[in-house]
Design brief:
The complex is a heterodimer of chains A (466) and B (943).
Chain A: H1 23-35, H2 40-66, H3 81-92, H4 95-105, H5 115-136, H6 162-195, H7 199-208, H8 216-249, H9 261-287, H10 296-327, H11 330-341, H12 345-357, H13 365-368, H14 371-393, H15 412-435, H16 441-446
Chain B: H1 10-20, E1 53-61, E2 64-73, E3 76-82, H2 95-104, E4 114-115, E5 118-119, H3 122-138, E6 144-148, H4 154-166, E7 171-174, H5 181-189, E8 195-199, E9 205-209, H6 220-230, E10 241-246, H7 251-254, E11 258-261, H8 264-280, H9 297-308, E12 313-317, H10 323-335, E13 343-347, E14 354-355, H11 356-364, E15 370-373, H12 378-381, H13 388-394, E16 397-402, H14 407-410, E17 414-417, E18 426-429, E19 435-438, H15 451-458, H16 465-473, H17 481-491, E20 522-527, H18 541-544, E21 553-554, E22 559-561, H19 563-569, E23 575-581, E24 584-592, E25 600-604, E26 633-645, E27 649-650, E28 665-667, H20 668-673, E29 704-709, H21 718-726, H22 734-738, E30 747-753, E31 760-766, H23 775-779, E32 785-787, E33 793-795, H24 805-808, E34 816-817, H25 822-830, H26 833-837, E35 850-851, H27 857-870, H28 883-887, E36 893-897, H29 904-910, E37 914-915, E38 927-930, E39 932-934, H30 938-941
Parallel strand pairs in B: 6-7, 6-15, 7-14, 9-10, 9-12, 10-11, 15-16, 16-17, 20-25, 22-24, 28-39, 29-38
Antiparallel strand pairs in B: 1-2, 2-3, 4-5, 4-17, 8-13, 18-19, 20-26, 21-27, 23-24, 23-26, 29-36, 30-31, 32-33, 34-35, 37-38
Classes of the chains: A mainly alpha (466), B alpha/beta (943).
Chain lengths: 466, 943
């Protein structure tokens, strides 16, 4: 139904939203999922997500009851699915803040249609990610010891440990992202409050809207707060995954101890984050009839970011090899050859295929505009990024002393815990799409031509501004 | 002591001994005889709660005796050490001795006598034995038969001699799972049947023909020391050279300078070839037929070396070889003048006995009415072809004395629990003639008898073992016996008991050589297992989980085949093969082992027990395949690969060192040319290594360090078990080992390199190296592992939350994680026994906690306290002996204060062979290694 995007005659920009988006219509279409009677499909999806959440609870309960040994971790592979999944989820949780904060600062207005959605995804992914370090330790009930809590024993955490930096980095990222997300939600929550017809809706949105009346002063404060938070969140986009990469880079295991890890991890995180946003968005925009707000143009922009970051990741893979050779360190060389041709060669080549080869298809506009192909590519990106972490963690299987070389095979509980985090993620997501506006209503309105009147663009109002 | 009260019970006696104890070490130790459990508020005199005390005792495996010092912690024996006064131990001990303390507390021990399977009292059992003796006296003992194992106890043999005098028709047979029958037959053929032979001195050339004196055969601890002394590098010109011919890669073969893989049946041919060359050089040896082996450079080089070092050579033939090979080996030793030089001959002092095969014959002839099994487990460990287990059923009354109701016990009318050696008085005479008293440390945990008491009951005597043992040795100290006795108990050795050397007459006339035929089919070579031997140690979870030094398999035996044979037979690691011989069939998983001779299947014995506890049931029993006449080497078998596979658990899967310089070695010549050869392997010069952190200051106070001499280490694995016993390390079971979760704090790495014609075996014990800039320490988020001022890398178990980051960051991968609640699982599995064994000075670790070698920090603390109490606080060199160091038969491990210029460890580290593993990481490990120096024959080394 959205046939063509006509470039704006003067600045040759593609309109950011398609017809029939108008101020009224945007509110209606975004609010619709919250005001519908929940369809059967939603209930089914929620039931499926809750089942997965139940699997997570069962798996973690059994893990706590029995011990870390229910997983496949061993000596020498002390970390397995736990850390693979942790890094994977944290990586996914990168797109949201990048879209909302970095693109905001760069005045990339196309972000407005997808930022809410991707920020929500970020938060839920960070929750999933945080679950892993919490449960993966041998004595989870003592997790609070990693917090610098003053105590009568005067024992502090070890500030030299990258794991501790991780705790700070991820929790700061999580809180700032949540705050940023919530601040952005306030005007829309007020909209929902004003439209609410049921008592609980009035209460729910009313409380969350914090008394928003859309006054000028409110808007002024809002814009400043939003800008400040965007400024705060931007360095976090870079820092979180840099710090996560320190878990590996600060150690002295061949294949982990490399300075390229921070930028390479950040690129990979954005890559996987956009992959996940695309996966979810391609489905959501169709189900919730938001194609005119999240246009093919948006999807194509995301595909371009994916292509860029995928290529960065590919460059990092190549550079790792070069450095391994150039360093003259025989252990480092062995590790990289072992990644390619060792027992986990399949993981390595899956990673290369998904992360380096597949995204190259995005050079073609026809691919970027083909939603089916894009969906498959976005899934493969996520698979590939999972394998990247798998390859990195499994470096442990063969390190300095050949005598201690081992192998790793995940158990059913590794898989069920991983599946269970999808339960967490999708339970949140299902609730999110039903109870919160998944597109930033106020912001999208701001990119309509009506919001941005010019005298020079005549009567093309219906085709939007920039 | 004949004037002791006659009806003295063992328990009462122990009370007397403890009251009369003189020295700190001698006091007889025991749980107090009063039944009430009293707090230490009313503690016995001289007993400080928590302060361990040591008592001398002794123990045997077959004919091999070790003198031991056993630690008693608040009345519980908790750890075994070697007795420095005993020539067969010299302070060290074997893996088996280390595990023997666990056996004491085994939940699988019999707790009551069984009459036809139903519980009976010990009094009833004793009454039965007394009645049996009385009844036998009526007809001179006809129909009464005693089956012994190889336990060389003077008192036992004295009592048996008395019994034989009293009952002339008594039949006495002996059988031991380690199978010395062929060695004895070979000795008999040349007139040496009355002598035991012990390697001694400093042989320059050692030729091993299917012999494994470092691993499974004979006095392994004493031979280990002999081996290490022969490799002493302070006198490189005196370095020994070891040749080995064997079908499977044994520990001894692995440590040899030259090794020839030959099927068991062909080993004798190599010996014959050597003998031919020696005879041609004028040695007094019988004429032997020519064979192909004479053409090999191995045989000629060996013969040349033997001739060049007459009187300082040693030719050892393994117990698995047929009698005539033993005879030839003895003749060669005689001709080379080794008797009295490198082989000590000591006259046996034992009652005459006959082999098990003859007993089987007697049973068939129906002349055995009552069989008293005093030791051993013939129903399991005798050759299956003998059918002895079935034959036991034909005896009207079998009386079995054993710690567990094993396969033999299950076939017996009476099963009488046997005391553990730490519960009973006894005595033992080692091969070199040293006699020691077996002193108990605890009164029997269950109603049980010692073998001495059983024989005494048959004699109609009701005394305890204590009286019987004292009786035997009373004549050695006619004046002041009591004082001598106390000294013997304290020292652990009866110095007055001098061995009778004798002058053997070696006869050549009885010698007949049987050339090895070339039988069709696959040859089966049955070998003793380095961990569980003939199966007697199979019930020990420690030994089941001790990795085989060569294959690194745990909890299992495998059919070992060479890579070439495996390729030809279509076998892979884990393929289940069906092996059949003479109508018997066994299915067992295959393991491909480099170094194995071609066309032969090696079958380790001892596994697949059916009785005597659940741990022993692991693995596959292969005894059924053993023909009665060829119990160890049997040709003519067939092997068929099945489509099934078996999952083995191995602690080290990678066999190649990948040209990494972790294990460094050189030949003697290269070492003399360039003593600093270890340095050429370093990636960085020492001054290129800069630390990111503040440099540690290792110059103050005590700074602990360890040196491990790879030139001495034989890879036997005794340190692994000793560490387990000392440090409360749980076993984890096969399934956990399979996924890589074994908990041993010290492991023995081994690598094979097949680059040259011969297989190169390299080994390296690996435990926490206590790096000065330890990579594990900075990554722990809660600071649970930190550095002590004395340079220890300490683990605060209570602080550990279990992120496992430290383990990931350890380049040696020596940290061990409690993935599950292993300690509590052991408790649930083994009952309270394991708790009684545990060392109260060492924390038992909870699940979710990382652990690792602590350098025996509890011993360091003890020494520090002692030094502060008794001196100026300076811990003297040698005051701390770590568990691994103390047990090591070759003294490969040295530990001490690096700031003490006179410490042995400082001298060791000053040697040019000293190097650190992965030094390029700048982690500065406190444990360093000394490179191995081999001594190959220049004529053979160019392969």
């Amino acid at each position: 139904m959205v046939a063509q995007a006509h470039p704006e005659p003067l600045d040759r920009r593609v309109p950011l939203v398609d017809p029939p988006a108008t101020i009224q219509q945007i509110t209606e279409s975004v609010a619709a999922p919250m005001e519908w009677k929940a369809p059967l499909g939603w209930w089914l999806f929620l039931a499926g997500s809750l089942s997965c959440l139940g699997i997570w609870l069962g798996s973690v309960g059994y893990l706590f009851w029995t011990g870390t040994g229910v997983w496949g971790v061993n000596n020498p592979v002390g970390w397995g699915f736990d850390i693979v999944n942790f890094v994977w989820w944290v990586g996914i949780g990168h797109a949201g803040t990048l879209i909302s904060a970095v693109l905001f600062l760069f005045r990339q207005k196309w972000r407005t249609s997808i930022n809410r959605f991707s920020e929500a995804m970020t938060l839920f992914a960070v929750v999933c990610a945080l679950s892993f370090p919490t449960i993966h330790i041998g004595r989870a009930w003592l997790l609070y010891w990693v917090m610098p809590i003053p105590n009568q024993m005067a024992v502090w955490p070890n500030f030299r440990s990258p794991l501790l930096w991780d705790v700070f980095a991820v929790s700061v990222y999580g809180s700032v992202s949540a705050l940023f997300w919530f601040v952005g939600l306030i005007p829309d929550l007020a909209t929902m409050r004003d439209r609410a017809t049921k008592k609980w809706q009035q209460l729910f949105y009313g409380v969350l809207a914090l008394g928003w009346r859309s006054s000028h002063r409110h808007w002024q404060h809002y814009e400043v707060a939003y800008l400040l938070l965007a400024g705060l969140a931007t360095p976090l986009v870079l820092s979180v995954h840099s710090v996560v990469s320190f878990d590996f880079a600060v150690s002295q295991i061949p294949g982990w101890h490399t300075t390229i890890f921070p930028p390479y991890f950040v690129a990979g995180a954005i890559f996987s984050g956009f992959g996940m946003v695309m996966t979810l968005m391609i489905i959501a925009r169709s189900i919730f009839k938001l194609e005119h707000l999240v246009t093919r143009h948006h999807i194509e922009n995301m595909a371009k970011v994916t292509l860029l970051t995928g290529s960065l990741v590919g460059y990092a893979y190549a550079m790792e090899f070069f450095v391994a050779w150039y360093s003259g360190n025989p252990y480092e060389r062995f590790t990289f050859i072992n990644r390619m041709f060792g027992p986990y060669w399949w993981a390595y080549w899956s990673m290369i295929f998904c992360n380096v080869v597949v995204p190259q298809a995005l050079w073609f506009q026809s691919v970027r505009r083909n939603l089916g192909v894009l969906f498959v590519i976005s899934i493969l990106v996520n698979v590939g990024m999972w394998f990247e972490r798998y390859v990195i963690v499994l470096t442990l299987a063969r390190d300095t002393l050949p005598s201690s070389w081992g192998s790793y095979s995940p158990t059913i509980f590794d898989f069920s815990t991983y599946l269970g985090t999808f339960g967490i993620f999708f339970t949140f997501f299902t609730l999110f799409v039903r109870f919160l506006p998944m597109v930033a209503i106020a912001e999208v309105k701001a990119v309509l031509p009506e919001a941005n009147p010019h005298h020079d663009d005549g009567h093309h109002a219906a085709h939007g501004g920039h | 002591m004949t004037d002791a009260p006659i009806n003295q019970s063992r328990r009462n006696f122990l009370k007397v001994v403890s009251a009369g104890a003189l020295s700190i070490n001698t006091a007889a130790c025991l749980r107090k005889p009063a039944e009430a459990i009293l707090p230490f508020a009313r503690r016995p005199e001289d007993l400080v709660p928590g302060q361990a005390r040591y008592f001398a005792t002794c123990w045997n495996v077959g004919e091999s005796v070790q003198g031991l010092l056993v630690r008693s912690t608040d009345g519980r024996p908790t750890k075994v050490e070697g007795n420095p006064n005993h020539p067969m131990s010299r302070g060290a001990s074997s893996t088996w001795a280390q595990a023997s303390v666990l056996e004491l507390y085994s939940p699988e021990r019999s707790r009551t006598p069984l009459r036809s399977g139903a519980p009976a009292t010990l009094e009833e059992a004793e009454a039965m034995l007394l009645a049996l003796g009385q009844k036998a006296a009526e007809n001179g003992g006809a129909g009464l038969t005693i089956l012994l194992d190889a336990r060389p106890s003077p008192t036992l043999h004295r009592l048996l001699a008395e019994l034989k005098t009293k009952l002339p028709k008594l039949g006495i047979f002996s059988h031991d799972g380690v199978g010395e029958d062929q060695r004895r037959a070979g000795a008999r053929a040349v007139g040496l049947q009355d002598y035991t032979l012990t390697p001694t001195g400093k042989p320059r050339v050692i030729a091993l023909f299917d012999a494994d004196p470092l691993g499974t055969e004979g006095d392994v601890v004493a031979f280990g020391r002999l081996y290490a002394e022969g490799r002493d590098l302070t006198k490189t010109e005196e370095l020994s050279r070891i040749y080995s011919v064997e079908p499977h890669l044994s520990l001894s073969g692995a440590n040899a300078d030259h090794r020839l893989a030959r099927r068991g049946s062909q080993v004798g041919e190599v010996l014959a070839a050597v003998a031919r060359i020696l005879r041609a050089q004028g040695l007094n040896l019988p004429e032997l037929p020519e064979n192909a082996e004479a053409q090999t450079p191995f045989a000629s080089s060996l013969a040349e070396d033997l001739l060049a070092h007459r009187g300082r050579t040693l030719v050892l033939v393994g117990h698995r070889q047929p009698a005539h090979v033993h005879s030839l080996g003895l003749l060669i030793n005689q001709a080379l003048g080794n008797f009295g030089q490198t082989l000590q001959l000591v006259k046996r002092q034992e009652v005459a006995s006959e082999p098990l095969s003859l007993l089987a014959q007697r049973i068939d002839e129906k002349t055995v009415d009552t069989l008293v099994v005093l030791g051993g487990n013939p129903a399991f460990d005798a050759a299956g072809g003998l059918g002895f287990a079935d034959k036991l059923g034909q005896v009207s009354q079998v009386i079995h004395l054993g710690m567990t109701r094993d396969e033999t016990g299950a076939k017996s009318a009476w099963h009488v629990p046997r005391c553990h050696y730490l519960e009973a008085w006894g005595d033992l005479r080692s091969r070199d003639g040293t006699v020691s008293v077996q002193q108990p440390l605890i009164s029997p945990l269950y109603p049980s008898l010692s073998e001495l008491e059983v024989v005494a009951r048959l004699l109609g005597r009701k005394e305890s073992g204590y009286t019987l043992v004292r009786e035997t040795h009373a004549k050695l100290a006619p004046l002041g016996f009591e004082k001598s006795w106390q000294r013997w108990l304290h020292d652990g050795v009866i110095t007055e008991a001098q061995p009778e050397a004798g002058t053997p007459e070696v006869r050549v006339d009885g010698f007949v050589w049987r050339p090895a035929g070339q039988e069709a089919g696959v040859e089966l070579d049955f070998v003793l297992d380095p961990s569980i031997l003939d199966g007697r140690f199979a019930p020990s979870p420690w030994l089941q989980e001790l990795p085989d030094p060569i294959t690194k398999l745990v909890w299992d035996n495998a059919a070992l085949v060479s890579p070439a044979s495996a390729a030809r037979w279509g076998l892979k690691n884990g393929t289940v093969a069906k092996i059949a011989l003479q109508g018997k069939e066994v299915e067992i998983g295959v393991w491909i082992q480099p170094g194995t001779a071609d066309d032969v299947v090696i079958l380790p014995l001892g596994y697949g027990r059916t009785e005597g506890g659940k741990y022993g049931k692991s693995g596959v029993a292969v005894g059924a395949l053993r023909p009665a006449d060829r119990p160890f080497i049997a040709a003519g078998a067939t092997l068929t690969a099945t489509s099934r596979t078996y999952d083995f658990a191995s602690t080290q899967l990678e066999t190649s060192l990948h040209d990494r310089p972790h294990v460094r070695s050189a030949t003697k010549t290269d070492f003399i040319d360039g003593p600093n050869f270890v340095q050429k392997f370093e990636i960085f010069e020492p001054d290129e290594l800069k630390s990111l952190w503040e440099e540690p200051n290792p110059k103050d106070g005590h700074q602990w360090g360890m040196a491990i001499d790879l030139n001495a280490c034989t890879a036997c694995g005794a340190c692994t078990v000793a560490c387990q016993a000392e440090n409360n390390i749980p076993w984890v079971g096969k399934e956990e080992v399979k996924v890589g979760r074994e908990l041993h704090w010290i492991r023995i790495d081994r690598y094979f390199e097949e680059t040259q014609a011969e297989l190169q075996f390299q080994t390296q014990p690996m435990a926490c190296a206590h790096c000065e800039t330890a990579p594990c320490e900075n990554v722990c988020p809660v600071g649970a592992t930190a550095h002590s001022p004395e340079g220890l890398n300490d683990m605060a178990y209570n602080r550990c939350i279990g992120t496992r980051y430290c383990s990931n960051n350890c380049p040696y991968k020596v940290r061990r994680f409690n993935f599950l609640d292993y300690a509590n699982r052991n408790d649930a599995d083994y009952g309270m026994g394991i708790a009684m064994q545990r060392n109260p000075d060492v924390t038992v670790r909870f699940r979710g906690v990382m652990e690792k070698c602590t350098y025996c920090v509890q011993k360091i603390s003890r020494a520090r306290i002692d030094a502060k109490v008794n001196g100026d606080g300076n811990i003297k060199d040698g005051a701390i002996v770590t568990a691994c160091q103390s047990v090591c038969p070759t003294q490969a491990i040295t530990f001490g204060n690096l700031n003490d210029p006179n410490a042995k460890v400082v001298a060791k580290k000053a040697e040019p062979r000293n190097y650190a593993v992965a030094a390029e990481l700048n982690i500065r490990p406190r444990t360093t290694y000394l490179a191995k120096i081999s001594n190959p024959n220049p004529k053979l080394s160019k392969g």
